[in-house]
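[step 3/7] inverse_fold.run input=structure_tokens len=210
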């Protein structure tokens, strides 16, 4: 698999867009915790050695993600984080909650972009020009950087949730549906941060009510 490139960013710069944000989210498919989005503006013309290591966050180790997140944080023109908590996901559904987290990430950018490159999810209600790119985190360096920041930030949040809600293995599973996580839900019931609209928690609640 080839590494992400600056092709999209450089193409947009020739059209006059100078601050281009990559945007991605993490946590859509978890059973617990928030969905978290990150927006990152990098300078494609900067001579940053770590640019060559940018990749879809799912394809690199936790330790490398953390190192890259530190480098991104030090060199980025702007970074914004957006969160949609489990309660909002239950209320709105994961698709709408994800879009809200992404819009919040844009709103929270420390430097305002004039164009956005998004991993797969179109945001038709925003006023900034954008392009949604399928598998963008594997193709576009700005989106790769956003995926890394989102993943590292959410993972740290879930480690913190482990101390608040012990017994579910959040520090290891990050809220995803592992066998041990399913077992913990069966024994302990859902925690305060589980998504009650998602299976298996929804099924367990329905079964207990019958």
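[step 3/7] decode complete -> sequence:
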């Amino acid at each position: 698999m080839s590494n992400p490139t600056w092709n999209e960013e450089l193409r947009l710069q020739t059209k006059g867009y100078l601050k281009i944000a990559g945007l991605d989210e993490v946590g859509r498919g978890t059973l617990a915790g928030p969905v978290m989005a990150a927006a990152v503006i990098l300078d494609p013309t900067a001579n940053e050695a770590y640019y060559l290591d940018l990749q879809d966050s799912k394809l690199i180790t936790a330790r490398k993600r953390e190192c890259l997140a530190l480098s991104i944080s030090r060199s980025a023109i702007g970074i914004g984080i957006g969160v949609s908590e489990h309660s909002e996901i239950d209320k709105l559904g994961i698709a709408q909650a994800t879009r809200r987290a992404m819009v919040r990430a844009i709103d929270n950018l420390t430097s305002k972009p004039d164009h956005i490159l998004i991993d797969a999810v179109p945001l038709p209600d925003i006023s900034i020009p954008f392009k949604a790119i399928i598998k963008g985190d594997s193709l576009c360096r700005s989106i790769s950087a956003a995926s890394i920041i989102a993943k590292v930030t959410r993972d740290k949040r879930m480690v913190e949730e482990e101390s608040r809600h012990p017994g579910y293995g959040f520090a290891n599973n990050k809220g995803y549906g592992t066998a041990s996580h399913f077992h913990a839900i069966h024994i302990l019931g859902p925690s305060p941060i589980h998504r009650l609209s998602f299976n298996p928690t929804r099924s367990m609640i329905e079964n207990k009510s019958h």
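[step 4/7] annotate
The first strand starts at residue 20 and ends at 26.
The two ends are 50 Å apart (CA to CA).
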